[in-house]
Amino acid sequence: MRKIVFILFTIFSFIACKEVNNKKPMIEKKPFGITKDGIPVEEYILKNSSEMSVQIITYGGIITAIKVPDRDGKVLDVTLGFETLSEYEKSSPYFGALIGRYGNRIAKGKFSLDGIEYNLVQNNDENHLHGGTKGFDKVVWTAEPLILSNAAQLKLLYQSKDMEEGYPGNLDVEVIYRLTNDNSIEIEYKAVTDKKTVLNLTQHTYFNLSGDKDILDHKLMLNADKYLPVDESLIPLGELTSVAESPFDFKKSKTIGKDIENNHIQLERGGGYDHCWVLNDQNIGLRTAAILFDPASGRQMEVLTNEPGIQFYSGNFLDGTLPMKNSDLFYENRSGLCLETQHYPNSPNEPSFPTVELNPGENFSSKTIFKFSNRPLE
Ligand code: GLA
Fold this sequence. Notes:
This protein is mostly beta strands. It has 3 helices and 27 strands. The longest helix is centred in the N-terminal third of the chain and has 20 residues, at 2-21.
């Protein structure tokens, strides 16, 4: 009898195990609303073969949710965002969005190419921020879903017209989000232009790996010996400054709240961390830029990129007025942080910074990976 029970147990365990391992990547599509201009918006839910999923809408290429398990298997949405399209249209601080034509700031909204001066909207005090009044975060992208053997993929396409938001050149942009079975979100950016222009694309998801009220107990490592100090309007001064013996040193994993209230002119100007770090190993292509870890849940997110910089923004402008999704609460100060891989802010006006110019005949490409995993209790 015992032998029969053991055999039956083994068979059922094998079947159960096959069931779980047989889960294949999949993509669901749902309507997400109509923009105020009357354009339909869809939401795509990408699922991999384990317990992770990513939700993306065609408005702004916005990631509306990333659901990942903790060390005990408890799945949580680790992003900030809204429940409705109108909230994203009305009052979003770029929650989850694709950012362009130029992510981050351009001083006074001005730059020149081949002796021609271009004037962009000054939508952030005296500066231009995140592509202007209607940047890539506020346009509707065309979506092409695709299931691969080891990933679920969503390609987003957008044609930015010549002089849209004041930028020269007709620019064809393609962004691929790929959720792989090893719990990575790969983001691949490509673009071509018919006239010399400037380009700096990034992704603006706000992360909170614990779901707690703020991110100050998260630990962060930034693979950077230097950072870009800024002026009062958050435009880099132009120098690359060592992080050594300063609150900006994250070369070893450090709790974000440890130094954030230090009496340092750069923390005063940013209202916390809101700076671009100069990543090490700039010539080896894709490498680790950051590791974000939540000791309470064990969730970890590694950021890899081939970009020269990463903007670490500690959610300093969140002020408790924006409604939290799936809750009656509101997003408090520093309840989420951004790790925006990018070229440096104001590069069009800083010849010493890596160029952000794109010429006809050139193929722009950039890659960033958000790789999720869990660590045991330390
Ligand atoms: C970027 C900027 C911040 C802030 C956010 C959006 O992270 O660096 O200063 O403007 O975008 O709120």
